[in-house]
Amino acid sequence: MEPNLPDVVLWSIPAFVLLTVIEMVSYRFHPDEDAAGYDTKDAATSLTMGLGSLGFDLLWKIPILAVYMGVYELTPLRVPVLWWTVLLMLLAQDFFYYWSHRGHHVIRILWACHVVHHSSRKFNLTTALRQPWTSATVWPFYLPLIACGVHPAALAFCQSANLVYQFWVHTERVGKLPRPFEYVLNTPSHHRVHHASQGGYLDRNYGGILIVWDRMFGSFAAETERPVYGLTKNIATHNPLRVATHEYAAIARDVRAAGSWSERAGRVFRGPGWQPVPRPEAAVPVPAPVSVEAAGGPAPVRAEAPASVTAAAPAPAPEHTR
Predict the structure, then answer these.
(1) Nearest-CA neighbor of 130 among 118, 113, 121, 142?
(2) Across residues 76-95, what is the average pLDDT?
(3) Per-residue pLDDT at 309 exceeds 50
(4) pLDDT over 70 for what percent of the chain?
(5) Residues 214, 82: contact at Cβ < 8 Å?
(6) pLDDT tens digit string along 127-136?
(7) Element (H or E) spanning 284, and its range?
(8) b/e code 177-204 from CB counts within 10 Å (16+ = b)
């Protein structure tokens, strides 16, 4: 029997709109020159990406739900939907969300999906709506929950609750919270670090609701200096189609330019900043000089050659964004 759980995202839409308007008005009357703030084109792109993701998610959910239901029917385990089991399912879903999120930062083909969310150089509540259109790469991370007897509808509820929670952490208008909250929960301060492009902040603070996973698995970084948002190589476009696909296009270019199958695999499955190690080429021997006596006359004048010549030039840098 399918659990009867509310659509958390649908019920939260009025709150999304109200909080976004309040944040916009706050910048109008209390501007902060150091904050990223709002840009009309950037905010419109984020809203367009969010609306587009709703439509594409419906398409992806058809095959994903079929796989989930198949696994659910095969497993003999069943987790009842009670108030205390829902809390445990939320905790478990947040744990697997951490690993899904981390995987989408360290594997380039997965990063090509998630990079959309990091492509804005602003950080405000509309940034939370900048969602990818290719989220079909997320579902494998939650298969263990389905195999343990969690109904797909219950998982969908937990994922929606996690998504709704993360909306409010996309803001610069909230400073650091009291220490107990900062230690346990993902907060605006922690998530500002996650969206920053500085070297010390890259690939940090993956948690959805809880930040304790980052503390446990060594990926936590506290906010110290003011973050610089966006990518290490930003994209100069507000075109939603290009925002959604630019990293896939970069992967295709790098794969075409790769010189070996191992490099092609690395361009797809290693990290976004991965570079192949240049292989030393065989030295080209230089012929021994001919003596004047052996040549029967004076030797031609020429520049002295080195003992060996290395032929290969370094591979060009990939065009990916990070």
Answers:
(1) 118
(2) 97
(3) no
(4) 86
(5) no
(6) 999 999 999 9
(7) strand 284-285
(8) eeeeebeebbbbbbbbbbbbbeeebbbb
User: Can you name the residues that pair with 284 across neighbouring β-strands?
Assistant: 309
CA distance 313 to 307: 18
Distance CA 307, CA 287 (A): 10
Query: CA–CA separation, 173 vs 189, rounded Å?
Result: 10
Query: Taking the CB of residue 13, how many other CB atoms lie within 10 A of it?
Result: 11
Backbone angles phi, psi at 65, to 5 degrees: -60, -35
Least confident of 48-62, 147-161, 269-283: 269-283
Q: What is the pTM of this model?
A: 0.86
What token pair was written down for 23?
Answer: 């944040």
Is 312 exposed, middle or buried, given 0-12, 13-18 or 19+ CB atoms closer than 10 A? exposed
**How far, in Å, CA of 214 to CA of 221, rounded?**
8
Taking residue 221's Cβ as centre, other Cβ atoms within 10 Å add up to: 17
